[in-house]
Amino acid sequence: MLPESLQDAIRAHAKEKFPPKSFEPGVTPIPPSGKSFDDAEFLKMIEAVMDGWWTEGRFTEEFEKKFAERLGRNFAITTNSGSSANLLALTALTSKKLGERRLKKGDEVITVAAGFPTTITPIIQNGCVPVFVEIDPKTYNIDISQLEAALSPKTRAVMIAHTLGNPFPAREIAEFCKTHKLWFIEDTCDALGSFYDGKPTGTFGDISTFSFYPAHHITMGEGGALTTNDAMLKKAIRGFRDWGRDCWCAPGADNTCGIRFEWKLGTLPKGYDHKYIYSEVGYNLKLTDMQAALGLVQLDKLYGFGLLRRRNHAKLRRGLEPFSRFLRLPDPTPNSDPSWFGFLITVKPEAPFTRADLVKFLNERKIGTRNLFAGNITRQPIFTEYDIPHRIIGDLRKSDDIMMNTFWIGCQPALSEDAIDYVIASFEEFMKPYLAPLS
Length: 439
Fold this sequence. Notes:
Blueprint (H helix, E strand, L loop, with lengths): L3 H14 L21 H13 L6 H14 L3 E5 L2 H11 L15 E5 L4 H9 L3 E5 L1 E2 L4 E2 L4 H4 L4 E7 L8 H10 L3 E5 L7 E2 L2 E2 L6 E5 L12 E5 L2 H11 L47 H12 L1 H19 L6 E2 L7 E2 L5 E5 L7 H10 L5 E2 L9 H4 L6 E2 L4 H9 E4 L7 H19 L4
Parallel strand pairs: 2-3, 2-6, 3-16, 6-7, 7-10
Antiparallel strand pairs: 1-11, 4-5, 8-9, 8-13, 10-11, 12-14, 14-17, 15-17
Helix pairs in contact: 1-2, 2-9, 3-9, 4-5, 4-8, 10-14
């Protein structure tokens, strides 16, 4: 623990550096996402700094334990970002440790076209083939009716993300994967704290992934994690994360296996130091102990953050309902309880204005907006300018509609109710000339 006098000084400085700010309409920016914190995060991070260890250590070990317990999973493995978590998840499935079930080049992985790039790029980076299915425009999640059509003799896995906190039908997809002997990677980077079928999101996949970027439900600044119940998958993930080495010792530890100088692997001489035996084509994707310390404080706040996200989203839903003749508003997936990451809006084709018109108006009033990530990713330069093998199920017209007409605004915990009121009032102001002729 830090000395009490130092703790008092840190608290005082944090409060001076980041004082509470009142909301001023039209002046205070309303970003689509952002982090929430107080002096507790600074105290814990400085405690980690003063340990002098800095790479993953006691705070990382504690975070992995608490995170796994929070989700009811056997194992959690931290990494330096949610994108790295996705890369590790897919890459782990290529490990020879998995025998005949391992993914090989040319194998197909079912995913959605309307999503974030790093849910998809690990498939490509490992030489597999993404198979793109459509979304349900009501929930912005995968249209599970297309799963059977997407199957082929080459299908080996499903890798999809919950969209902006709204869960996809995770139990049904897990059952589909079990029936067809497919791996299931559940990208939960935007949905930590959500529930489907009474269970937390991130508990349905063979591997589930999480992001702790500042925009997400909790933050480490940069950071991510994977969870699994399978000890072999855990070993493969850590191997790829830690330079590809066969050894599973924590940093600074030696001889965890008890036979460090007795191994015989590859064509190495018997007794070659196990800390320097490499069985995977790996990376270094670890995080620091300072990040894990920050994550520990944020994890304790996850429930409260979720309540505020739900409150803000519900208030926006009520406030924008009068404009539903022009706007398609977000619906939760049946049998779910989302911890919303953002508030999705689609401008209907019959509206007398465009998405560009509305987004321009909102941004002029300092209300930040974002598109739904890549839109239809098959229209992005990565696919139009490179010869990347892929398959498409159907015509992806719904993904095109998302690309052309959808955007989202913020509902993060840092937003005050005054800020949400201003957002609703801004929509009212924009809609006045379009609603008047209809009244």
